[in-house]
Amino acid sequence: MSSNNKIEYIAREELESLQFRRLKDTLERVYKSSPFYRKMFKENGLNPSKFKSLKDLSLIPFTTRQDLRDNFPYGLLSVPLEKVIRLHTSTGTTGKPKAVLFTQKDIDQASELIARSMRMTGAKRDDVFQNMMSYGLFTGGLIFHYGAEKLGLLVIPAGAGNTERQIQLMRDFKTTVIHITPSYALYLADVMEDMGLDPKHDLSLRIAYLGAEPYSEETRVKIQDIFGVDAYNSYGLSEMNGPGVAFECREKEGMHLWEDNFIMEIIDPSTGKVLEDGEEGELVLTSINREAMPILRYRTGDLTYIYPERCRCGRTHRRIARLKGRVDDMFIVRGVNVFPSEIERVLMSLPEVGRNYQIVLEREKNLDKLRVRVEVKGDLFNGSLEHLRKLEDRIRTRLRSELMLTPQVELVEAGSLPRTTGKAKRVIDKRKI
Ligand code: DLL
């Protein structure tokens, strides 16, 4: 422990009293200034003086994504517009995006959390950091960028895409640390191999930060092996600053959620009941260190659980488990609930499977069909048909025993499925059309 990371080891009691102080401040501010929360408090007979302990948080109704949309763009703003200096929006939504606003203090605090997370994993001032997440409205670019600068690394704001230039930059500047979506990392490896380069030996990487989309432990291991890096899971969402909400330490067993900035709860997504540590459910977050736009009891839609035990690293902020997916990611095929992450886990544990897959849902004569399209390693596809049939059978059997469903398995050539440089779209549901 050093003086600049004391907060990571703060005693639980002290942490909880800090949380309560910050919660009270936040409640006062939103009650006074946010039209949305003022109305919500009035309708529910609440006012900030009613809150006597952290437990009273449960008096507040949940805030949902729909609330953010309905009150777009300024309904949740809790400071005068003249104090606002930045806008980000959330990605991947249809219709109106969710606007997220920042004051200078909010940007400083978000950067501090990124710097803290990077320092925790061993990034140092003499590292060269290439940020391969998209810059602009998405938080993965600018928020991470500011944090890395705060820590004092050399930052290359490469953004997503333009893969050959990325590789050139990594080679020219001997990049040691990258920030990238896991799906883009696998794509990058394919491109390098096509160029006759070995990601492990022809680059100087030692750390990769992976986040912004769900992926399996098996994918992490794959990326670590291909690039010869330590890969760390990073979780966040625009509504709560973007990245830097929860981050793995060197133990790589769950992500420390920075509880001095966020209060976390896990709820049963269908009843809203608050669950115990260790029980899986939907993550609900309250930002307690935001000026422009604090959000109370926000339903993230993300499924995880809280580790009940203290981490071996000694940090006191509790950890959340690798995200299982989103509540709305889950699809139901013939009555069976399936998470794409379960399919990925099976596929990525098979050595013959390549780096990409796609899940296609179809309806034929009122019967749901699940088809999994799987890229196989390059040379295998040119091998004997019998060999491929056997592999198909093996994948099908493994998926059947995990999912209790028999999917159709279609093997395809490496590199033939669509790629993105940002968040991957894995599930094509044709049933709704
Ligand atoms: O994805 C912020 C971010 C940027 C996080 C860079 C990490 C790295 P949004 O675009 O608002 O913000 O998307 C947030 O992405 O609710 C999760 O469903 C998903 N997500 C983010 N990180 C992870 C992760 C950014 N490590 C939504 N594992 C969240 C699984 C993740 N899902």
TrEMBL record:
Location of the AMP-dependent synthetase/ligase domain: 90-286
EC number of this enzyme: 6.2.1.30
Pfam families listed in its UniProt record: AMP-binding (PF00501), AMP-binding_C_2 (PF14535)
Record domain AMP-dependent ligase C-terminal: where: 335-431
Catalytic activity field: 2-phenylacetate + ATP + CoA = phenylacetyl-CoA + AMP + diphosphate
Record keyword Phosphoprotein present: yes
Function: Catalyzes the activation of phenylacetic acid (PA) to phenylacetyl-CoA (PA-CoA).
Protein name: Phenylacetate-coenzyme A ligase
Organism of this sequence: Aerophobetes bacterium
